[in-house]
Design a protein that fits this description.
Layout: E1 5-11, H1 17-26, E2 31-32, H2 35-45, H3 56-73, E3 80-84, H4 87-96, H5 103-111, E4 117-121, H6 138-154, E5 158-161, H7 167-176, H8 179-184
Parallel strand pairs: 1-3, 1-4, 2-3, 4-5
Length: 185
């Protein structure tokens, strides 16, 4: 049996990734939720300062550890697993904040490879909202999207932009761009 293919769905904060992943999951595809949102809730509940707006380096390290665990837990999944963000996203966030990226992030990426095709959702102002875990302004969200796009490209990934549309149309756009899906047509 071949290892499941691990596809990343990424983009700046508030671009609609979670909604698309929930639709994919409802359609029967294994999906791994965004690690950072849960981690933020836990750190806030514990009164920790290891938060992206207080100590991004600390938060990035904890996020990386969780992403590695999440990645390893998908070993027994079906042929495809979708991830709400991947290790390159952490690298992009550190770069956007002009913080050093420790070598362990690049090593972790080499040891936990994703598919070379990554689906990126562009900023979409009409759906962007702040919440307890999404603290960035619209301008910061756009800047993070740019950093994410540049980081993935620099790391050798091929980006497929999933344009603003209904959740169903975005999901179909992703599935239509999978080599596995194309073989079934």
């Amino acid at each position: 049996m071949t290892a499941p293919k691990k596809y990343i769905i990424t983009g700046g904060p508030g671009a609609g990734k979670t909604s698309v992943l929930l639709a994919l999951e409802k359609a029967g595809y294994p999906c791994s939720p965004e690690v950072s949102r849960r981690l933020i809730r836990e750190e806030v509940a514990n009164g920790s300062q290891c938060l992206p707006w207080a100590d991004l380096s600390c938060f990035a390290g904890k996020t990386l550890d969780r992403m590695i665990t999440q990645y390893n837990q998908t070993a027994g999944h079906a042929r495809i697993t979708f991830f709400d963000r991947g290790i390159p996203d952490i690298i992009a966030y550190l770069k956007a904040a002009a913080l050093p990226v420790p070598d362990r992030f690049y090593t972790a990426l080499q040891q936990h490879p994703y598919q070379p095709t990554v689906f990126i959702l562009p900023p979409w102002k009409q759906i962007y909202i702040n919440d307890a875990e999404r603290w960035q302004t619209w301008e910061e969200a756009v800047a993070l999207h740019t950093s994410i796009r540049e980081t993935y490209r620099a790391l050798g990934f091929t980006l497929i932009e999933v344009p603003p549309a209904s959740v169903e149309n975005r999901m179909e756009s992703i599935l239509e761009n999978l080599p596995e899906f194309k073989k079934q047509l």
